Each structure stands twice: as structure tokens, then as C-alpha cells.
Amino acid sequence: MAAEVTAQQLIAKHRPTLDQALQTIRTRAYWSPHPEHPKAYGEDGSLSLPEGKAAFDALQGTRFELDQPGTDDWVGGEVSPYGPELGITYPHPDIDTLLPAMRAGMRAWRDAGAETRAVVCLEILARISARTHEFAHAVMHTSGQAFMMAFQAGGPHAQDRGLEAVAYAFAEQTRTPDTADWNKPQGKRDPLAMTKRFTPVGRGVSLLIGCNTFPTWNGYPGLFASLATGNPVLVKPHPRAVLPLALTVRIARDVLTEAGFDANLVCLAAERRDEGIAKTLATRPEIKIIDYTGSSEFGDWLEANARQAQVYTEKAGVNTVVVESTDDYKGMLANLAFSLSLYSGQMCTTPQNLLIPRDGIRTDAGAKSYDEVVSDLAASVSGLLGDDARANGILGALVNPDVKARLDAASGLGEVALSSKEITNPDFPDAVVRTPVIVKLDGAKPDAEAAYLSECFGPVSFAVAVDSAADAVRLLGRTVRAKGAMTVGAYTTSEEVAAAVEETCLEECAQLSLNLTGGVYVNQTAAFSDFHGSGGNPAANAALCDGAFVANRFRVVEIRKDA
Amino acid sequence: MAAEVTAQQLIAKHRPTLDQALQTIRTRAYWSPHPEHPKAYGEDGSLSLPEGKAAFDALQGTRFELDQPGTDDWVGGEVSPYGPELGITYPHPDIDTLLPAMRAGMRAWRDAGAETRAVVCLEILARISARTHEFAHAVMHTSGQAFMMAFQAGGPHAQDRGLEAVAYAFAEQTRTPDTADWNKPQGKRDPLAMTKRFTPVGRGVSLLIGCNTFPTWNGYPGLFASLATGNPVLVKPHPRAVLPLALTVRIARDVLTEAGFDANLVCLAAERRDEGIAKTLATRPEIKIIDYTGSSEFGDWLEANARQAQVYTEKAGVNTVVVESTDDYKGMLANLAFSLSLYSGQMCTTPQNLLIPRDGIRTDAGAKSYDEVVSDLAASVSGLLGDDARANGILGALVNPDVKARLDAASGLGEVALSSKEITNPDFPDAVVRTPVIVKLDGAKPDAEAAYLSECFGPVSFAVAVDSAADAVRLLGRTVRAKGAMTVGAYTTSEEVAAAVEETCLEECAQLSLNLTGGVYVNQTAAFSDFHGSGGNPAANAALCDGAFVANRFRVVEIRKDA
């Protein structure tokens, strides 16, 4: 099959972007090639907001054709957290047919080399970028994110994380040259001389197990890291969030085909309700790599049972913010209020436990008692979400009934400092929209531990009264060690306390945001600069993105001969 | 404690060497800072051959003091494969005392940073290099290697592999800068500005499980990769080969102390006979990294059970050479004869199965039948080892009675093409020295499979008659897939056959040496240039040395704040 687009054309088009990404992962300065503003789209072949909406609408109630081998059924059932059923059905695979077919294109993909693989991945990302507004709606109506967040986190930010993974994968594969001449002196005799050729080879089929809340943002790093290192990728989306990854698979297949490669290097594995296909796939001998985001229970199962594969997991944790003192009380409250509210606390990075000394804290607005801090924070959240339109824009919708159940139960865990309120979404009357609850707990009471030492995923935070800053630091360390954490925050004007928190984060391997009072939030990380997770505490065994995330997805085969 | 030597002094001394190593792992040209000739030692504070021998002699019959915490016994029992008992006893650890003590120095070691850790490691290697002649005797009298091999492989080549690991570790840790300024434009508003600090942190105590045959060569990569990335290293030597690693631990402790660090960052765990301390240590929660060389059985056990640790294994495989045709028959025979004989075939890289078409092969000396090839190879081995002094210098001694038992049993597996002979070592009359056996097997006979599809570690090779070149390539692929391989060799003048062998090695992830007829042998790899193992077939889950070998031994903790 003749390629419609050559590797040389793709290199000419994308190499500057790749080079900029390679430079940025070394400097970790700000950079992104993917515009964050909705109005930046609509020209040069990209979809405008209404075009994206129309494309999304046109998909509803249809069969999502992918032309994959071994399709034995059509499955669906996605219901938007905003109410509507999507009515889309996807191909269900006979995996005994699909998995062998996915290996067929591996050799040509390997022989294409690291640079061609990278620019093909960049072309896929560019096509995804052009359809960002379609993805925004797809992400919104599967995750329950509000539109702006679905647009940004599901669009440019996810694409950034994918590009970052491609850059790491390319850098890793090109650490070793393609060829080498080796000449070893032998005194007066002729030197020993050899020529050597080094080829990065993929490990086998890579399985991406997608999540409900961030199907693209959490899915793209593993997908692109594996594809760029020579592995076919089988995408198993969360059954409630198939569409964003199905769109991704379709675009990847189109680009692969146009570039002369086998479309089956990227396939979709949609599943029947309660089929649990991930468990079946994860232990298949063809599957050599697994990327997973989701519950600790299944993540731990994968790590223990998918022994034939490299397993990269992002699981659950308990995120802590130490509130000890601040020189910007208002800024701190505003920053925390937004962190707790964004996407109804349904981020793996949302703070859960706020550790506040029971004797209160020092601030630029004077001393504040524990009760004052908690009530001021509650007021700040209430103020932020006081306007229903703004509240809807920040909160989005609850992604599933489990979150609502946990939210409802939370008020029974302690004294409620801020009750959850129901918000109406005029555009989507069936959406379940709730403001966060803040519950007071006493860290000294053993019966409170069960609450604050468990992850309560959703819009639930605990204001935990602690004896002192030192007590807070101890509890922080204990929490990360036992439960893991994707993020840690701290507010303190004391160098001593800051040093103690920093040392605990270094010791327990947790990512720390210190004294955030402006427009950056503890729950947000920027690709190319911030690591998402550390890979060194129980919340995740990998970080997005670093050398360890890509280095073992391929191996280097050396062929040497006498020169 | 004031350091006797400062980081700045060590940087001034070793940074040029580190830089050269960093450059060489990128070019993969020849380089080594460690002289390969015995006479290169004896000046500038290094031990000459007689001084090294004297130092080794002085150790015998003594207690090997290390001043480690938690020593509860003194254990020993090493007997040289050349006969003499070493009579050395080593500290046996109470691991409940030793493991916590090893963590005490981690923080200062972390805070020292990647460059200081690297140059401290290079100082350790430089001190080891200066005592190369002492190590040569220690390796010889624990592994059974002949002196020259013990000197080279146990000395400079092992030191090269250690330095290579330090270079990879340093490169990996410094991919991310120490600090970054991040400024994100916000249109007309002020940009978002943050400062970020990135710190590589070790995972915890690293366990090195040493092997009998190459205690330093196989031990140094893991030891130095872990130490350079901030982890304390507990060295558990093979009970028959303690001394080379005990010397290493002593030197490491001396250097750490002199540089102002805690000596307990490197400790020894010697064990009582049949204690099996490796199994106990491997599942301790403090152990976060394990490096292992040895049997597949225990390697597989570690991978399955040491779930709290990153596990890097080099296990057993079945190495194959395809003999299809050659334009240098004499060179091929000489090269193969040496490969089969070196260290009595007791290398994980020694060829075991020679696949030869039953219809014979084309050569520059005319067509040769299968029988002729086998008998010519047998004659070549006999010629190489015809002189007892030279034979002793190549063969060394059998490392343990199991090897001799396998050798004795091998002649019952098929028609013997070359019998093993006993060689007397006049210097060490108790040494068990044997020439290799070559056994003919028919690849078409199912009952031969049990022999050639199992690893028969030691001086045993099988000349397997195959139907054709294509049959040989198929069997090669099947062998690597099922049993793994550290090395593959092939002799062919056919581009088609070469391409088929290369494709099989790429497909099955095996390192290939093609048409070696000179002074480089399939069983030898050079640090900085050749990968040892691929990490992609059952013989090993890691390669020496690449990014994957170091990248997950540490994590990066980020601390960010508003600028």
C-alpha cells in the first residue's frame, strides 16, 4: 500500500515541535503547542466550537465504525452525567482474532525507526488537536466535567501530555546511536574492529485501561509512550467514557493508514456491561505493557497478576494540605476553595485532608482559630459557588452514583462545616450537580481515623484538627506512607515548618505545592514541567512523565560483526 | 564528622572520567579508563602483581572486619575451586539491626546530589582499580577463573561496567534540572509564575544478590547504579564467592567515611551455610530494589515474590550459534573453539547449541559435511587446549561439583564428538580442570529436545543437526522464546540467511554476533558499547546497561511555589 503521506513530509511538518518538546522537558519552562482558548480553533482545518458540537451531536445514536478485525458484537450504553444517553455503539472484539492481528504491523512499525514513529504520533496529536471542540463535548458528556474544563483538560492539556510522552520516548530510544564503529587498540597488533547496529524493538501489544474522569488526559501518556516505542496499543476505555478514546483510536488508525502503516497498530476494545474484559486482557500472553488509571483495588490486582507485562498504574491516594500559617489569608482561602470545588473534587489530585492546628494559625489578617479557618474556608467556597452559572462552570456534574452516595454519607462522619448544596443546571436538568461538603474531624480521636485515612473520592474534604505543626507533619508522612498521595500542599510562613514538610515529601516521595495563593492550584500539573504523581508512594507506581515511564517499553537489540 | 576529602576535590579528580563515560555511552565507541594489562599496575599507589598476591595471601585465615552494626556471628567456608580453603570469616548480620542502620545515611546521601554521588562512586572504583591484582586473586580463588581472566573480567572489565552504571545513573538523574522558572502567559493579565525544585530521591535499601562465577562483573552494575541514585546497598554475596564483594564493600565504606558520609550506605550480608538469607532479605519491606544473577528458578521466585521491590534479574538461557556457511572456515573454527573453552563454558554467554545443517555447509575451504564440521571443531578445540599450560590458562577450574556432574552426564546424551579430558594444574593439584565435551544431537528427533532445550551450564555443547538454514532459524527463534538467550551467534555468507537470523533476533529480542572469526568472541561484551543481555527474553529482565536499568531506582520529587 502506497503511503499518502511520507515520513519525510511528516518529519518536515513536526520535527520542530518535537525538538521544542525535547528541549522543554530538559528546561521544564512553560510551553505548549496546543491553544488553551476555545476561540483559537475554527481555522486551518480545525473545528470551531459550533462545528465541534455538531460533530459530537452527529455521533449520537450511531454505530461507531472502526473496521477492526474480529468484531463479534456492538456494545454501548454511555449515559452523560448531564443526563442524555449517547446511544453510540462500538465494536466488541473477539480477542483471539484481534490480538494476533495487532501484531501483524509491528515489524514495519519497528523498521520505521524512532523518528518516523514520533512524527506519526505527532500527526495523530495534530489531528486530535484540530478536533479539540469535538473531544471537549465527548469528554464533557462522559466525565461530567464542565465544558471549559473538558475543553482544556480533555483537549490541549491531554494533547500536551501525549506529546510529552512522545518526546520522552524519542529521547530514550535515541540515547543509543543507530550504528557504532568500535576499535580497540591491541598494542603492536591490529586493533580489534567491529561495526554495531542498535535497533529499538517494542515489547508487544500494549493495553491502555482508561478511566471515567479523564479518559484522554490520563490515557494519552501511556498510549503515545507505547506507540512511539514500537508497540501496538489496544485501548480498553472505561465503559462510561468510551467516546473520547474511540475518537482517538479512529484518528490514530486513519493517520497510520495514510502513512503506510497497519491501522491495527491501534485498536479499541469496548466491552459489554459488567463483562470485565480488562481482567481477561491483562493476563493474555500477547499483552506486554499495561497502563492503568483507576481504583487501587484493581491497580493492585494488575500489579500482582499481570506478571507477563510491564504495569504502570495510577491508583487512589489521600491528598493532604497542611495549613499552618500564611501571609495571604484571603489568597489561601480562595485558592483552596477553588481546588476543593473544581470538577466537584473528582480529581485524583484534589486535596482531601486539610490539617489545621487546633490552636489556630497565624495570618496576615491576624490570628485565626481552627473554627475561624474552617468557617472562613466554607464561606470562601460558598462565595465562589454562590452564582449558579459560575458554580455549574466549576463543578460540572457528579460522574456516577457512587460519588453521590459518598457525598451523602460524608455528613455523617463528623460536624459539617459546609453542607453540600444541590445546584440546578438549566441546560441539563438531569445533571447531578453538588457543592462540596467540608467535615470537621479531630485528628486526636482514633475513631476519626477511619474517615481521614481512607480516600473519599468526590466533593468531600476533612478539616482535621491537629495538635501542632509537628503533629501535622507527622500525620502527613503517615498518610502518604500508608495511603499514598498524588499531591501535597502546605501553607506556612515558617521556614522551619516548610523544611519539615519538604523533608517529609522527599522522604515519602510526594509532590509538594507550597503556599499557592494565585492562579495555580495544587490539583493542576502542567506537562513538560510538572510531574504528575511520583511513582514512589502507594498512589501510583509511575510518574507522568519521566524516563522510567518510557525506558522499559522497548528493548535495544544489538547486531555486531567484525569490521 | 569532617570529611577528609571534599566533594569539590572528588569532582576535580573524577569529573573528566565521568564526562568521557557519558560521551561514550552515546557514541558506543571503544573506551576504558581501566588498564587491561597486568603490568600497568604497581605505580601511583596501585598494587603490582606480587603485591596483589601478598595482599590476598594476608587475608586468608583471618576475620574480615567491617565494623558494621548488628553483627551477631562470623561466618565463612569459602574453598577455592583450585583447592585451598580460604579460611576467612565475615560478619553475619542481625538484619533487624542492620537494615534500619542502613537507612540512617540516606538523607545526607540524597542531599549530596547526583554529581557528588557519582564522583564518590568513581573514587570507590578508582580505589578498587588500584587493588585490581588483589581482586584478581580473590576472583580466581572463588570463581575458578584462570588468573588472566580473573584479572581482566574481575578487574578492569567489572570496573568498566560499574562506571557505565554510574554514567547512566548520573545522566538519568540530571535529565531534569535542579530548578526551573515557569512563566505562563495570561493574555493581558500578569503571567502565572512559579519556581520549581526537583530532587532525585532513592527508593530505599537496594539488595545485591551476587553470583559465584562473576562476583564483581555481574555485581558492580547493580551496586553502583543503586548507590549513585541515592540508595544504600546491602551486598549479599554467593557463599562460595564472598571475598571479592567483601573487599568491594570495605573499600566503599572507607571512601564513604572519608567523604563524610555514613559507611553503612554499603554493607555486607554474609550468610551461614544453607541459611538462604537472600529469600528472607528479598521480601523485607525495607528492600526496594534487588539485583540478582543466578538460576532461573530463584530469579523467577524473586520476580514473583519480592513485590515490594524493583527486581532486576539475569537468569539462565540457552545460547545458540547458527552455522550455515562461512568465508573463513579456519577463523570460524578457532573463534568457536575459544568461545566454547573459555572458563570451561561457565559463562552465561557461552554458546550451547551449534545448529548445523545435516547436509553440511559451504566454506572457503570447500563444502563440509555436518560430520566434518563437528570433527573439525573438535580438532580445533583439542588443538587450542593441547598444551596443558595454555589449557589451564583458558579453562580455569570447574566452579563447583554440579558443573562436573553435568559434564559427566553429558556424554550419555548423544554421540560424543569430543570427549572431555582431565587436565592437571601443576600449581593447584586439587583443581578440577576439564576440557569441553561436544555431543551430537539430531534436531529432528523429539527425544533430543530435552537436552538441547535445557540449559546445561558448563563445558558442554551440542552440535545439533538441522534440516536446513530455515530450520535452524526456526529452532533459534523457538529456543530464545522458550528458554531465553544471553547471546546468539551466526555464521553465514548468505544475505538471505543473515537477514532471517537478524529478523529472528529482533523479533525475539536477542543480542546477535555475526560471523566472528577474529579476536572478539560471542561470549564477551564491552562496557560502554555492547549491551549484555536484552531484558526482552526469558534469560534476563534487564540489560547491562541502559536507561531502564537505572531510571526506576530513584524518583524525582518536585517542590513548587508561586514565584
How would you describe this structure to a colleague?
Two copies of one chain form a homodimer. Chain A is α/β, with parallel strands linked by helices and 563 residues long. Chain A has two domains: 62-315 and 543-562, Aldehyde Dehydrogenase, Chain A, domain 1 (3-Layer(aba) Sandwich); 320-514, 3-Layer(aba) Sandwich (Aldehyde Dehydrogenase, Chain A, domain 2), CATH 3.40.309. Chain A is 41% helix and 19% strand. In chain A, α17 runs parallel beside α18 (495-508). The mean pLDDT of chain A is 97. Chains A and B meet through α1, β3, β4, α18 and β20 of A and α1, β3, β4, α18 and β20 of B. Chains A, B: Pfam families: Aldedh. Chains A, B: InterPro entries: Ald_DH/histidinol_DH (IPR016161), Ald_DH_C (IPR016163), Ald_DH_N (IPR016162), Aldehyde_DH_dom (IPR015590), PaaN_2 (IPR011975), Proline_metab_enzyme (IPR050485).
Q: What features would you highlight for this structure?
A:
homodimer, about 575 residues, 2 domains, seven-stranded mixed sheet, five-stranded parallel sheet, about 20% strand
